[in-house]
């Protein structure tokens, strides 16, 4: 019965979303045990009352049969003709029967009242079980929703991580390609610079050679001019001497 009171008090309280299914099973088992014991007690009381009533009926039938064997005609003659002991026994048995019938009626009233109480408790237990099952289902739904949310977040994280990895890989590949292109361009520039330097050196050598050739030619012309001038001067002096 303590389980009944605790379960009844539990009806007004809030149920935690994290309801333990074992706790629910224990409450249902306690309810079934209480109902079984209560029904067993009522059946035993009813059977005992029926046995007592049957015993009284048998005793009354025995007395009536005994009176009939004595060939008594009417009930008035029976009461006046039977011995005092038999009359007092009959009165006592009738009083006991009346009392037992009253007790049986009281037991039946108690039985009916107990059935009403049992029905009310059964309804309360049913409400409790339905509430517990509803809370359990709600908790399971919340748990499934949370797990689904975690899976979605994990998948979203994996997708973003994969996207970032792809972007990093593409950026790294692009940087490697740009570095290779820069190295190739640098090599080409170095080759072009070397070619330009070689060409410039060759051009300077050629210009120096041409300048030296021109200078030598100019020197030759200057020497020839000096020689002609010297011959002219000598001819002029000779001409003056002749005159």
UniProtKB/TrEMBL annotation:
Q: Where is this region: Disordered?
A: 199-243
- Point to the regions of Basic and acidic residues compositional bias: 199-212, 226-243
Name under which the protein is recorded: Uncharacterized protein
């Amino acid at each position: 019965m303590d389980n009944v009171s605790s379960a009844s008090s539990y009806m007004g309280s809030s149920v935690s979303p994290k309801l333990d299914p074992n706790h629910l099973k224990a409450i249902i088992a306690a309810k079934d045990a209480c109902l079984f014991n209560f029904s067993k007690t009522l059946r035993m009381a009813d059977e005992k009352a029926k046995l007592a009533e049957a015993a009284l009926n048998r005793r009354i039938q025995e007395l009536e049969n005994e009176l009939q064997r004595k060939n008594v005609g009417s009930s008035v003659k029976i009461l006046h003709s039977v011995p005092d002991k038999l009359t007092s026994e009959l009165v006592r048995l009738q009083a006991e029967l009346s009392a037992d019938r009253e007790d049986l009626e009281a037991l039946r009233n108690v039985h009916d009242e107990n059935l009403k109480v049992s029905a009310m408790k059964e309804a309360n237990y049913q409400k409790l079980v339905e509430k517990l099952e509803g809370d359990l289902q709600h908790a399971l739904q919340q748990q499934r929703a949370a797990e689904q949310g975690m899976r979605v977040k994990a998948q979203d994280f994996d997708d973003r991580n994969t996207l970032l990895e792809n972007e990093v890989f593409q950026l790294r590949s692009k940087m490697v390609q740009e570095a290779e292109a820069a190295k190739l361009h640098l090599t080409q520039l170095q080759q072009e610079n070397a070619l330009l330097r070689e060409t410039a050196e060759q051009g300077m050598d050629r210009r120096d050679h041409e300048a030296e050739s021109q200078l030598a030619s100019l020197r030759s012309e200057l020497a020839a001019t000096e020689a002609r001038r010297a011959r002219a001067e000598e001819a002029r002096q000779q001409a003056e001497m002749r005159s």
